[in-house]
Amino acid sequence: MGISDSIAGFIGEMLDELGGSAELQRADLANKFKCVPSQINYVISTRFSPEHGYIVESRRGGGGYIRITRVEMKPEMLIMHTVNAVGERVDLSTATALAANLHRSGAISDAETRLILSAIGNNALRPVRPDQRDLLRASIFKQMLINV
After folding, report:
1. How far apart, in whole angstroms, are the C-alpha atoms of residue 30 and residue 42?
2. Model pLDDT, residue 84
3. Segment 29-39 mean pLDDT
4. Fewer Cβ within 10 Å of end Cβ, the chain: N or C?
5. Which residues, 6 or more positions from 19, have their beta carbon under 8 angstroms from its beta carbon?
């Protein structure tokens, strides 16, 4: 397990223990994991983003903190929020993160997740020009979510 996985696991456990919201000190986490603070920033920005179902607030300075809150919604609300968040275009990594969040929250099943990812993947969109794939991917993704 890499350092990023360890940091993400630790933060996830804290969120579970504290009811879905935690305030963290970047420097304390960096000391705990013997890494630079930018590593903490990287983990938070890649693993605890809105696409993954989290709200992150940050206050810099001497008494600065990072507050991470897990967003809990009813499955129908989460799906509609995701549809509205997609917009006209979505790249594959963002769509994958959104689908994983929906699956993790129980809004879509394992089979639905696999089907959606298959339909919006680059292999399925191969006949479409690369500069048009994100546009088509967003349309397919939203339509599949609306009809789940």
Report:
1. 12
2. 86
3. 91
4. N
5. none
